[in-house]
Amino acid sequence: DIVMTQSPDSLTVSLGERATVNCKSSQSVLYSSNNKNYLAWYQQKPGQPPKLLIYWASTRESGVPDRFSGSGSGTDFTLTISSLQAEDVAVYYCQQYYSSPYTFGQGTKLEIK
Amino acid sequence: QVQLQESGPGLVKPSETLSLTCAVSGGSISTTNWWSWVRQPPGRGLEWIGEIYHSGNTNYNPSLKSRLIMSVDTSKNQFSLKLSSVTAADTALYYCAREANSSLAYWGQGILVTVSS
């Protein structure tokens, strides 16, 4: 199985500041035939199902605010929230879709300072 | 807009079989997408359980494979999960979801299943 490791486990950021969540996979999730990284990011607020934010490592899902961005390739990935809003308080997960089982990171809890 | 809704018993006894169904609305289950189950123990992270295609092809998490059966009913536009020989470790919020662009783009609200006598 591909192990996904997120850092940090929790993060406290002031409103309007940048928040960065990292995700590292135990092996590359870059599919060479199409040059796509099979890495997705989700946001989960309390009492709600996860919501897809980013797929293919950097493609924003329709309707997701442009303050959310994804970057990285191979084994190292980053989710960045450029200017933190109060509604961004949530747990964030990365998931690899490169090979089954499609494993998730352990989650990063984002709070407001 | 595709919508998914999980249903099934909220309480299952140890050693018995957990059975859940996911009803799909707003679109056909017979699309070029896979349909997944994901679970989340209370206060913990997400675990991908497995997926099924409308043809009936399946892909299971090896950690659960020996106890897991997924099926699809295209006439009812729904898919199902059966997990046998459950223990307290199977207590979780169970979500159904639809794959798109190699990610889980649509999710149900989830159903809490507790394993307890």
Describe the 3D structure:
The complex is a heterodimer of chains A (113) and B (117). Chain A has strands at 4-7, 10-13, 19-25, 30-31, 36-37, 39-44, 51-55, 59-60, 68-73, 76-81, 90-96, 108-112. Chain A has 113 residues and is an all-beta fold. In chain A, the strands form three sheets. In chain A, strands 2-12-11-6-7-8 form a six-stranded mixed beta sheet, with no helix packed on it. Chain A starts with a strand and ends with a strand. The relative contact order of chain A is 0.34. The mean pLDDT of chain A is 97. The mean pLDDT of chain B is 97. Chain B is an all-beta fold. Chain B has no helices and eleven strands. In chain B, strand 4 (35-40) and strand 5 form a beta hairpin. In chain B, strands 2, 4, 5, 6, 9, 10 and 11 form a seven-stranded mixed beta sheet that branches. The radius of gyration of chain B is 13 Å and the shape is globular. Chain A binds chain B through residues 1, 36, 38, 40, 42, 48-52, 55-56, 59, 61, 93, 95, 97, 100-107, and chain B through 36, 38, 45-48, 50, 59, 61-63, 95, 97, 99-105, 107-110.
Short description:
Chain A has strands at 4-7, 10-13, 19-25, 30-31, 36-37, 39-44, 51-55, 59-60, 68-73, 76-81, 90-96, 108-112. With 113 residues, chain A is mainly β. The radius of gyration of chain B is 13 Å and the shape is globular.
Structural class of the secondary elements of chain A? mainly beta
How would you spell out the order of helices and strands of chain A? Answer: EEEEEEEEEEEE
Mean pLDDT of chain B: 97
The overall pLDDT of chain A, averaged over residues, is: 97
Outline of chain B: globular
Query: What kind of oligomer do you see?
Result: heterodimer
Kindly state the percentage of residues in helix of chain A: under 10%
Structural class of chain B: mainly beta
**Greatest interface by residues involved:** A-B, 25 and 24 residues
